[in-house]
Design goal:
The chain is an all-alpha fold. The chain contains six helices and no strands.
Length: 126
């Protein structure tokens, strides 16, 4: 079986979500650098677009949009059947942890994070 087929849906989604977060950090740093340039807010739209292209911000923004679409599309394939083992439950909780922003509901987010962590500790070692 090829390596990409050995990786579960959850692992693939979590890896892409992690890469999305890294790219978002890169985007934020690049934008902050541009905004700190003297006269940035006085530039014309065309000059700003050119500066964004030159800094790589435009490319990063494109990658972020594509990753976001892919993450949302993959959610349609979220397994609907009950998990067959504790690893499946843990994987579902890990995805839920990433989907529920802590700012939206700190208490529920904390419950999900702790449930995934606690189940990981309780699962039998093979």
């Amino acid at each position: 079986m090829p390596d990409f087929q050995r990786v579960s849906w959850h692992q693939q989604w979590l890896a892409l979500n992690d890469e999305y977060a890294r790219q978002l950090d890169i985007w934020a740093v690049a934008l902050a650098r541009l905004e700190h340039q003297p006269g940035w807010f006085a530039m014309s739209d065309a000059d700003r677009d050119e500066a964004e292209r030159a800094s790589g911000l435009t490319d990063t923004n494109t990658r972020l949009r594509l990753m976001d679409r892919r993450l949302r599309r993959w959610l349609r394939f979220l397994p609907k059947a009950p998990a067959q083992d504790i690893e499946g439950v843990i994987a579902n909780l890990q995805v839920a942890e990433h989907l529920l922003a802590p700012e939206e509901n700190r208490i529920v987010h904390g419950l999900v994070v702790r449930a995934a962590r606690d189940l990981s500790r309780l699962k039998p070692t093979s």
